[in-house]
Amino acid sequence: MTNTNTNNSNDELGHSNSSSSTDLLKSIPFFAFEVNHDSLFEDSKALLAQVFPEWSAEDLLMTQCKDGITNKLIQCANKRVGTTVLIRAYGKHTEVIIDRNQELINMAALTRLGMCPPLYARFQNGLVYGYIPGTVPKPEEMGNSQWAPLIAKRLAEWGQVQLPSDHSPQLFPILRRWMQDIPQTYANKRANDIFHKNFSHRALADELDFLHDLLLKVESPAVFSHNDLLSGNIIMSETKDKVSFIDYEYATYNYRGFDIANHFNEYAGFECDYSRYPAKEAQLEWFKVYLGQANLDSSPESLEKMYVEVCHFQLASHFYWGVWGLVQASISDIDFDYMDYARMRFEEYYKNKAQLLNWLYDNETKK
């Protein structure tokens, strides 16, 4: 572990005159420092001494947040100055599945727009950024009348964000890259047995080709997308009149239908209770709010078209996180059953696929 600050610029993110990706990255102070997963608290204190040299270690109250399944997260509250920051140490080998430069660009740009907390520093294997106080919903609460309209409005605002990055949908480039990282054999015997009982590389590749061909026929605009809008990444303000989204590591430009369908899938939680997936009428109400916030047509015809769009991309969401689980099962040291999670996501994928194809067939025969 080293602690040399190699680029500690004092320029605030919002004061750069350039919108280029390079300038956004350069605007974030960098510390050549690594936070070890086996000494999170000790290393976090040492890092904060570099990032905030005016802080005293005696004033810090540190708590590990254990809800995430990608990274290690430490909440650090300075009791004396009344400031709380978060230190995220990247999960081991997560650079295989996450473009960390894109994540930094996302955060820096969103900070300028007032849509995410301040980004104080980056270090060799993570970030230091601001904490948003508020309430986090349970998965089953996201669709209720208190949360759903606020989430729809915020996601519509996200869809209008312009970033200095590729504006084409990244769903299939990401999936094809991840597919290359699914191993032939898993070191964990149980994971290996589950994989070979339920999957094959050839079948997965064929299914991805099918999904690509299916979704090419669906009209869905490319918008800036969160791509991981589960309950833990949504925070309601203390005034209860708006929500904020956190954790931007999967955010890219993507199909609108994917981001919305993915959020609806997250009503199920990690236990994958898909009986919570919103009924059609609830979806239509959600779409009205979303389209209204985006100043788009919300006629009955537009709502029905959006419903069909999201139904198709529900499949893509299951495939995306299923493949993600297959990769994570081979690289992560976090205590989570990624392989079984992947199995459940693909199980739901094939169930939804059958339902969608039956629906498409019925509609075609009625013409």
Automatic annotation (TrEMBL):
<dbReference type="GO" id="GO:0005737">
    <property type="term" value="C:cytoplasm"/>
</dbReference>
<dbReference type="GO" id="GO:0006646">
    <property type="term" value="P:phosphatidylethanolamine biosynthetic process"/>
</dbReference>
<dbReference type="InterPro" id="IPR011009">
    <property type="entry name" value="Kinase-like_dom_sf"/>
</dbReference>
<comment type="similarity">
    <text>Belongs to the choline/ethanolamine kinase family.</text>
</comment>
<dbReference type="GO" id="GO:0004305">
    <property type="term" value="F:ethanolamine kinase activity"/>
</dbReference>
<dbReference type="Pfam" id="PF01633">
    <property type="entry name" value="Choline_kinase"/>
</dbReference>
<protein>
    <recommendedName>
        <fullName>ethanolamine kinase</fullName>
        <ecNumber>2.7.1.82</ecNumber>
    </recommendedName>
</protein>
<comment type="pathway">
    <text>Phospholipid metabolism; phosphatidylethanolamine biosynthesis; phosphatidylethanolamine from ethanolamine: step 1/3.</text>
</comment>
